[in-house]
Design goal:
By secondary structure, this protein is mainly beta. It folds into 3 domains: 29-95, Immunoglobulin-like (Sandwich); 99-110 and 206-407, Thrombin, subunit H; 123-199, PDZ domain (Pdz3 Domain, Roll). The chain has 4 helices and 28 strands. The chain has helices at 3-26, 157-166, 356-362, 400-407; strands spanning 31-35, 48-52, 60-61, 73-81, 85-95, 99-121, 124-125, 131-132, 145-149, 152-153, 172-178, 181-187, 190-191, 197-198, 201-217, 222-225, 241-247, 250-255, 264-268, 274-282, 285-290, 304-305, 315-324, 327-338, 349-353, 373-376, 379-388, 391-399. It has a 6-stranded antiparallel barrel with strand order 6-15-16-21-20-17. β23 and β24 form a beta hairpin. The longest helix has 24 residues, at 3-26.
């Protein structure tokens, strides 16, 4: 082989090795949360180790060696390459295991956004019959959240309309949030009538729907639901909420799913009773505190362990759902795939409905079943989150440990 070809082969080999290590290091989250005794689910790569940033012992160990020996709490570590190079700082939190009571009860959801969400923009026709885009070149975008106008907090669309009309067309200063970054801009409202002025922004300050309560933690009365976050229908972004309510619902109709057309549960949340308050909306579900336990009536004797993902097995499992008032029933499913290293979204397991009664009733997984708890071997292992549009018998479930860690507010 010619020297030039040898050099090229060597460089390609070197680049492949560099790429493998880059991917391995990049795959390590900056925040890792474990139950007491749970092992980190990362492939062992030669030369990648951890070192306690605050320890004087200089103890170095591999990711796979991080086991139940670690105490409850949060520690800072350095990820090292070949024991020499510091390549990343990470935090590892260890929390106590908990028991939960699986619920599976359908309920209504009402959310108020934190600030006012911009869901669209459009040109507007002024009183002079000229069309304007007052937001143009301001930097503000769809998906941003308006927090203040002229240093006045705005909490709903009524506030925004009032402040803009009072401006009488004078330029207003808008403070808004984008991906947790605080920004501001100036926009001159357009006069459309004697008393009305517009910014050309379509906005929303609330959302509502129905879903399934997944579990209650008996020692705290904290609850989790949905297994996925509430997103804005226009922007697709997770809603940043200020508060919300979990309420009873009345089932109006049940539409069976077919290939290409997911079914849904239609319910009414008007004039219903409050179950509890919603405090958090995240990619792994919505969370809050039960305030009227009589609306759920959990049985503390039915509290079960939360399985770690290493305990989950392919094959038979069950889900809990309610389609008839508050009556919860158990149905058979099977787990086809387990994505054990998935900590970044709510598609942790691929599941399939195999219960004939449920298939006759719903055709499989339908909208409203999100949050239905998944059980296996007497443990809570997850909650339904998504349906496959082309095959409603199949869908995804989030890991139960991710939901509990999110609830504990340390993830």
């Amino acid at each position: 082989m010619k020297p030039k070809k040898i050099l090229i082969a060597f460089l390609l080999f070197f680049l492949v090795i560099v790429y493998v290590y880059f991917c391995a290091i990049n795959a390590i989250p900056r925040n890792i949360i474990l139950f007491k005794g749970e092992k980190i689910n990362f492939k062992k790569v030669f030369g990648i180790t951890l070192e306690d940033k605050n320890s004087i012992s200089d103890t170095i160990f591999t990711l796979a060696e991080y086991t139940e020996k670690q105490g409850i709490g949060k520690k800072e570590y350095k990820v090292k390459l070949f024991g020499i190079f510091d390549v990343k700082d990470i935090d590892i939190s260890v929390i106590e295991r908990t028991k939960v009571i699986p619920i599976g009860q359908l309920a209504g959801i009402k959310l108020r956004t934190s600030g006012i969400l911009i869901v669209g923009m459009s040109e507007i026709e002024g009183e002079d019959n000229i069309k304007y885009k007052p937001y143009e070149n301001s930097g503000i975008q769809e998906g941003d959240t308006i927090l203040q106008i002229d240093n006045i907090n705005v909490t709903d669309t009524k506030d925004l309309i009032e402040i803009v009309n009072l401006s009488k067309g004078k330029t207003v200063n808008i403070k808004y949030a984008r991906n947790e970054e605080m920004l501001e801009c100036n926009i001159k409202p357009v006069k459309i009538s004697e008393t009305e002025y517009k910014l050309g922004l379509w906005v929303r300050d609330s959302a509502a729907g129905i879903g399934t309560m997944t579990y209650i933690e008996p020692k705290s009365d904290k609850f989790a639901a949905l297994g996925h976050g509430i997103t804005d229908i226009d922007t697709g972004n997770i809603l940043n909420i200020s508060n919300g309510q979990f309420i009873t619902t009345k089932i109006v109709s049940l539409i069976k799913g077919t290939n290409g057309n997911p079914g849904k549960i239609q319910g009414s949340i008007n004039e219903q009773s409050k179950i509890g308050k919603i405090e958090k909306n995240s990619i792994f579900g919505i969370y809050g505190t039960v305030e009227d336990i009589t609306k759920v009536n959990p049985n503390n004797n039915q509290a079960i362990d939360v399985a770690t993902r290493n305990e989950i097995q392919l094959g038979d499992a069950t889900i809990l759902c309610s389609f008839d008032g508050n009556r919860v029933e158990e149905y058979r499913i099977q787990i086809d795939k387990i994505y054990i290293n998935n900590d970044y979204n709510n598609k942790s397991m691929l599941i399939k409905v195999i219960d004939e009664e449920l298939l006759k009733k719903t055709g499989g997984i339908i909208q409203g079943m999100s949050g239905s708890p998944v059980l296996q071997n007497g443990k809570f292992i997850g909650a339904i989150t998504n349906v496959l549009i082309n095959d409603p018998t199949k869908g995804y479930s989030v890991f139960g440990d991710l939901m509990v860690k999110e609830m504990k507010s340390v993830y």
